[in-house]
Design a protein that fits this description.
Residues 36-121 form the Reverse transcriptase zinc-binding domain. With 159 residues, the protein is mainly alpha-helical. The chain has a domain at 50-150. Helices cover 54% and strands 0% of the residues. Helix 3 runs antiparallel to helix 4 (67-77), helix 4 (67-77) packs across helix 8 and helix 6 (107-113) crosses helix 7. The radius of gyration is 26 Å and the shape is elongated.
């Protein structure tokens, strides 16, 4: 059989929708009222879920740290901190750490695996109170020192 005949057979075999003269109803599955919004669609495409986002913000806001530390944590949580790995996705830079040279510079690398960050964390292991305030403030300052190093500004390094 030819492709045209086969295509016609497939089309004919499909059962047409029932015509009961009802009005069409708009229904969007990601809204409780079934309504479509550009904002909700963007959040779905970008991978944000409102409940998850609100819960994470509430947890971050409860940390006893400065406001700028909380904003930093929110950016980190949503993978919005600019690093070499993110810039490489936009073809702007090599994804590798400009200090190490052999590992991709992700936020996790900068805050945890980076050799100098590793030294800082090893000193904090002995601190008795390792609560979220110490952790969040340490992450914030490691990020600040990384940016100062990348942009050649004069910020005293902790090592």
């Amino acid at each position: 059989m030819s492709a045209v005949v086969l295509e016609n057979v497939i089309i004919i075999s499909v059962v047409p929708p029932h015509n009961d003269n009802d009005m069409d109803v708009k229904l969007w599955p990601w809204n409780s009222m079934g309504g479509f919004t550009v904002a909700e669609t963007y959040r779905r495409i970008a991978g944000f879920h409102m409940h998850h986002d609100l819960q994470s913000w509430k947890q971050i806001w409860r940390i006893e740290s400065a406001g700028r530390v909380k904003v930093f944590l929110w950016q980190d949580f949503h993978d919005r901190l600019l690093n070499n790995w993110r810039m490489a996705r936009w073809n702007l830079k090599s994804p590798y750490c400009s200090y190490c040279g052999h590992l991709e510079e992700t936020t996790c690398h900068v805050l945890r695996d980076f050799p100098l960050a590793n030294i800082i964390w090893s000193h904090l292991v002995d601190i008795q109170h390792r609560g979220s305030t110490v952790w969040s403030t340490t992450c914030f300052w490691i990020w600040k020192w990384r940016n100062a190093r990348v942009h050649n500004t004069n910020l005293q390094e902790p090592w």
